[in-house]
Amino acid sequence: MKVDALIMDPKDNVVTCVRDVKAGEVVHYRSKNEDLEILAKEAIPFSHKISLTDLEEGQEVIKYGELIGKTTRKINAGCLVDHNNIYSVPRDYESELVEEKGEEPVEIKKSEKGEKIQFLGNRRSDGRVGIRNPYCCKPGKRGCKYCI
Q1: For 110, left (φ over 0), alpha (ψ -120 to 50), or beta?
Q2: Distance in angstroms (rounded) separating the CA atoms of residues 7 and 32
Q3: pTM of the model
Q4: Partners of 27 in the beta sheet?
Q5: Which residues make beta-bridge pairs with 34?
Q6: Distance between alpha carbon 116 and the CA centroid of its chain, in Å?
Q7: How far is the CA of 12 from the CAs of 17, 53, 61, in angstroms?
Q8: Which tens digits make up the pLDDT trace of 10-60?
Q9: Distance of CA 66 to the CA centre of its chain
Q10: Strands 66-71 and 122-123
Q11: How crowded is residue 39: how many other Cβ atoms within 10 Å of its Cβ?
């Protein structure tokens, strides 16, 4: 079976198309070693999302098993999901912070080659660290405006 879309997590309610899909085409994807399909009710451009279920206005859009936004209007199964019908929901990073327990820092080990292991991240203005996701939300578009 040729795969036309990727699902990132079994909880996702959208898949990302890996090619341009015309309205009326069947979109094939795999989840948990199972071959699945959905009928595209409208054209879905390469690297855009297609809804797997009917999503009501205000419903959460899940990709990577995480909330990526909420719908601004109803989106039927098989329809395009993009910035015209969803909006971003800011995360509450403060609630995700791990409480410090006064433990000793973890020893930094050396790699098998004897090199020190490095964390290639960035320091935020508030002192916390973060990473840039090199696996862009739009396959094949590394460094797109959504991930910078």
Answers
A1: beta
A2: 10
A3: 0.64
A4: 38
A5: 31
A6: 31
A7: 14, 10, 8
A8: 999 999 999 999 999 999 999 988 999 999 999 999 999 999 999 999 999
A9: 7
A10: unpaired
A11: 12
